[in-house]
């Protein structure tokens, strides 16, 4: 398969591209490098530009007429930022996706695998959700994803596209071969902040301790980014079969591990991995935060014939090793290096 990967210079898209290559497929990357890293595209077909640029999309399909599907990862992703800049989030994630899908359909590429998010679910009493759980996003970021799903559902009903949405839970870790990992300088997600605090010799800040969870901190389903990437390859490999399970509808599939982990539990797993106590402080929740959800659906395993292979300790290890390598290498030369930390 030859597959267009938007956002293929970013954290998840670059890992998807590696998993495609490892599976004998060919990724073609479209990325504007707004948060992506050019070195992640080395040795891969790469077009720098905006997903909404019709001329660029036309050029890609002229040069690669055998692209059979698109994985659409490009977008802006920071929940608290979306609360401050909703118009930007709706423009980047919703308006530009409509333009992209229109250009894709115009080029005869109707198979769309969309990067959606479990953040669109309303947390239930026990925080477990499946694909039929109520969708009730609480931030402009999550709402932009729910709106794209709605657009794709309508386009699928009209036969304009065949669409599958992978609703990611919380991807962490790095490519186990360390070809790519988290590329942004100042991550906002819990494990990213933990790693920066640990390398910087600072306290980790737990944001939100009054959620109705077992220990008051928010719960998430942390899925290794390599497992997530393999779920994409599985979905692409049997795309028509998966789409045919709900003809003329958007097929939504949760991609999580099935295990809920609180922030305190993630911190404990980090301490266990490094063998050192991790000092922390506590504050109120961030804007747009939710108590969280974990996956309780088996649809991903059944429809995609996929199952996660890695656990949280693997993900922490890969993320730490990537961070260490990245700080040392040319791509990370401007970053602060590990603050005298011994390798765990
Ligand atoms: N990271 C998570 O926790 C998470 C969870 C659920 C869903 N997702 C979704 O997965 C996708 C990828 O997320 P990520 O963590 O890899 O983020 P990322 O920021 O690392 O990657 C996004 C990529 O898209 C590119 N991009 C952004 N806008 C673009 C545009 N208009 N045209 C072309 N390229 C553009 C960026 O340069 C970047 O390389 C996003 O759609 C995100 O919403 C992420
Ligand atoms: O330094 C931190 C960072 C986060 N948290 C807490 O940890 C929990 C999880 O936060 P994350 O940011 O790791 O996870 P989210 O599900 O809130 O958001 C993540 O997933 C979203 C999509 O689902 C977006 O992609 C977003 O950018 C990405 O961070 C939240 O309660 C948050 O308040 C902390 O306690 N301290």
From TrEMBL:
Pathway(s) annotated for this protein in UniProt: Carbohydrate metabolism; galactose metabolism
Record-given protein name: UDP-glucose 4-epimerase
Gene3D superfamilies: NAD(P)-binding Rossmann-like Domain (3.40.50.720), UDP-galactose 4-epimerase, domain 1 (3.90.25.10)
Enzyme class: isomerase
Domain NAD-dependent epimerase/dehydratase as annotated: residue spans: 3-245
Molecular function per GO: UDP-glucose 4-epimerase activity
Organism domain of life: Bacteria
Entry's family note: Belongs to the NAD(P)-dependent epimerase/dehydratase family.
Cofactors named for this entry: NAD(+)
């Amino acid at each position: 398969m030859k597959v267009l990967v938007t956002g293929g210079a970013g954290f998840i898209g670059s890992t998807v591209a590696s998993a495609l290559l490892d599976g004998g497929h060919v990724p073609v990357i479209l990325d504007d490098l707004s948060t992506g890293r050019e070195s992640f595209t080395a040795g891969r077909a790469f077009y720098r530009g905006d997903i909404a640029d019709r001329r660029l999309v036309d050029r890609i399909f002229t040069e690669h007429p055998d692209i059979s599907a698109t994985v659409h990862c490009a977008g802006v992703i920071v929940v608290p930022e979306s609360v401050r800049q909703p118009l930007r989030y709706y423009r980047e994630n919703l308006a530009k996706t409509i333009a992209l899908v229109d250009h894709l359909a115009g080029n005869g590429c109707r198979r769309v695998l969309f990067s959606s998010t479990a953040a669109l679910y309303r947390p239930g009493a026990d925080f477990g959700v499946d694909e039929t759980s109520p969708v009730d996003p609480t931030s402009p970021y999550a709402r932009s994803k729910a709106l794209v799903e709605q657009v794709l559902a309508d386009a699928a009903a009209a036969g304009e596209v065949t669409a599958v949405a992978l609703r990611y839970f919380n991807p962490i870790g790095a490519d186990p071969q360390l070809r790519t990992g988290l590329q942004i300088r100042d991550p906002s997600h819990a494990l990213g902040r933990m790693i920066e605090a640990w390398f910087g010799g600072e306290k980790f800040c737990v944001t939100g301790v009054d959620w109705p969870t077992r220990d008051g901190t928010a719960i998430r389903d942390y899925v290794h980014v390599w497992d997530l990437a393999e779920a994409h390859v599985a979905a692409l490999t049997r795309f028509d079969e998966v789409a045919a399970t709900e003809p003329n509808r958007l097929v939504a599939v949760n991609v999580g591990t099935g295990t809920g982990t609180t922030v305190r539990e993630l911190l404990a797993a980090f301490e266990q991995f490094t063998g050192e106590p991790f000092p922390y402080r506590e504050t109120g929740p961030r804007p747009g935060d939710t108590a969280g959800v974990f996956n309780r659906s088996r649809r991903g395993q059944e429809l995609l014939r996929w199952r996660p292979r890695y656990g949280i300790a693997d993900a922490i290890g890969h993320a730490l090793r990537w961070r260490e390598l990245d700080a040392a290498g040319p791509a990370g030369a401007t970053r602060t290096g590990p603050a005298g930390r011994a390798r765990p």
